[in-house]
Amino acid sequence: MNIIENEPMSKHTSFKVGGPARHFLKAESIDEIKDTIKFFSDHALPYYIVGNGTNLLVSDLGFEGGIVTLGKSFSEIQDLGDGKFKVGAGVPLGAFARRSIKMGLAGIHKLAGIPGTLGGAIYMNAGAYGQEICQTCVEVESLDQNGTVQVRSAEKCGFSYRHSLFQNLAASKQGEIILSATFQLEPPEISGKDSFTLETEMQECMAKRKASQPLNMPNAGSTFKRLEIGAEGMPQQIAPGYYIEQAGLKGYRVGGAEVSTVHANFIVNAGNATASDIKTLSEHVQKTVAEKFNIQLQLEIILIGKF
After folding, report:
1. If you ran DSSP here, which 8-state letter would residue 276 be given?
2. Contact 22, 64 (CB under 8 A)
3. Is there a catalytic annotation at residue 162?
4. For a 10 Å CB count at each end of the chain, is N or C smaller?
5. Among residues 14, 2, 31, which one has the least CA distance to residue 214?
6. CA–CA separation, 278 and 102 (whole Å)
7. How far apart are the C-alpha atoms of 232 and 193, rounded to whole Å?
């Protein structure tokens, strides 16, 4: 294992903030992952597996444990034929989506603009514009803390809105490392869409994303999860951004962190923000929306380290 000591996590997160990880390494094989798990277990240290860091907020104090990323061997897309693919957890979701478009296969083409990796997409059940990763997932391969490879059907992965079984396992200190996932996509004769149509739909989604999201500023995507029901006596809105904007918080700042003026459900690093700025701002937004609308916003981003 090639372990880097005190690696700044600001280099590995889309927020561009975060203190040093005590240990940082890239695993190139399942055996290396097993060795990594043993190393952290022997030293009684916590660890996280991360992809592109697009949904993370790491403390300014850093993380007194290990941060592990997956290497090239987990970045392969295997074409199994008839629209079926086995995709490594380290593959950028956008790369897989674009490949499917070129092959005229429907099912994940609207997810091309999501910046994370396949493993993170499975963990969070990523979705956009009516598509979710679980809709085409067939099974998921993961490694448990005993070093045993687990293979689960999609039905056993507990997928729901921005949620999966893997979040439950992590919360119960039985976290597993997602290695790959298998997908079944739809050919033109089933979807009724050829490559041109899929490309057009993808480009429309990308244009909407560009017009409605602050892509030019460091952020971690949607800060808060979509609501299940709107506030009583108000239009039936389930979008957190609606309530944040109605609360007058667009453009509100704490230090270098700002509620985006483009999309209120994005907190952005407007310049030299700290992780503490971002967390404090998110808590202010939650408190204000709760006071005004009796709605509890829940973070979609994942916090790592002590705040």
Report:
1. H
2. yes
3. yes
4. N
5. 14
6. 39
7. 41
User: CA 132, CA 151: separation in Å to the nearest integer?
Assistant: 20
**307 exposed, middle or buried (CB, 10 Å; 0-12, 13-18, 19+)?**
middle
Q: Single out the catalytic residue among 100, 164, 180, 222.
A: 222
∠ CA 275-72-2 to the nearest 5 degrees?
A: 65
**What is the pLDDT at residue 236?**
76
User: Given 162, 164, 201, 282, which residue is catalytic?
Assistant: 162
Distance CA 128, CA 147 (A): 33
Helix axes 195-212, 93-102, angle to 10 degrees: 150
Residue 148, judged by CB atoms within 10 A of its CB (0-12, 13-18, 19+), counts as exposed
pLDDT value at position 163?
Answer: 94
285 vs 299: CA distance, rounded Å: 11
Q: Annotated catalytic, 152?
A: no
In contact, 59 and 275? CB cutoff 8 Å: yes
With b for 16 or more beta-carbon neighbours within 10 A and e for fewer, the 54-64 pattern comes to bbbbbbbebbe
Residue among 116, 124, 57 nearest 281 (CA): 57
pLDDT digits (tens, 9 = 90+) for 69-125: 999 999 999 999 999 999 999 999 999 999 999 999 999 999 999 988 999 999 999
| CA distances (Å), origin 244, targets 3, 247, 265, 273, 282 | 42, 5, 7, 20, 11
For residues 118 and 139, what is the distance between their CA atoms, to the nearest angstrom?
A: 13
Confirm whether pTM is higher than 0.85.
yes
Rg (CA), the chain: 20
User: What is the DSSP secondary-structure string of 145-197?
Assistant: TTS-EEEEEGGGGT-BTTB-HHHHHHHTT---EEEEEEEEPBPHHHH---HHH
Residue indicated by tokens 């199994």: 80
